[in-house]
Amino acid sequence: MRATDGDKAVSLAWNGVSLPVPADWRPARLGLGYLYFEDDDGPAFEFKWRARAGRDGMEAALKALTPKGRARAGGELPQAWTNALADFELMPLSWRRDGRAGLGAALFCPHCGMAAVFQAYGGAHGPEAARVADVAAALAGLKHHEPGPPAYRVYGLSFVAPEGFALAAFSFVPGRFSLTFAARGRRLDVVRLAPADVILAQSSLGDTAARTFGLTDATVREEGAMAGCPAVWLARRQGTGFVDVVARRCGRQGTLAVLRHDAAANKLYGAALVAASPVDRQWLAQTAARCVSL
Predict the structure, then answer these.
(1) How far is the C-alpha of 182 from the C-alpha of 175, rounded, in Å?
(2) What are phi and psi of 64, to 5 degrees?
(3) How many Å apart are CA 187 and CA 178, to the nearest integer?
(4) What does residue 262 show for φ and ψ, rounded to 5 degrees?
């Protein structure tokens, strides 16, 4: 087990929750309200949450803990953890199984109604001192009801969602990270593709954008610049003419998309909005520009 002194913390944010974690904690699994980290020794830390779940959500959170059905209420938490969680109501929990042990708590925030559960993984005797210190630092820096739209900082990707858009789906695979948001019948897709030089050696920026956003039948393709980078815009059913207007009224939504090439970062960044009315190009440009690499 590594020592914590001098190790740099990484600020991670995901769907309404942010916390500092050690640089060697890898986000191995994600969910809409779930973070699971591993380090070189295996499982390290797990956090699950549900906004506005209420006080009764603590019991449901306890039942959701991995390994399912093995956690029990009770146990003594390190003082540094309870100090960091002073604003929460909490129910300590613990488990032992197959030579490993976990210690954590189900939580309720009386200020916003969030229910959550966390656990630190350890060996047969529970988390060691270094793990306890790491978890204390993460809990002390935990933020979950900050004003404004939620920020996303994970896998080197940074993005702030527009007001009113909620995360609906996501995908993180080698070479392509994507986030999908929904708001009142509109869908916003945000992507980061890499390495750009390899992708663009095989296909132009416009063709890459068309495939990425499913716009191979786009009626408009326009090259330009965005955020100081070469960019291409694609549009489908964005016009004010009879055909486009009737198509949108019949439920065939239109799409406006932009993909830019950041040569310095060797990455492609893009965003596309699917909606029943023409998309504001300036709004989409500002939204797409928020997607950057850390």
Answers:
(1) 24
(2) -85, -5
(3) 13
(4) -95, 95
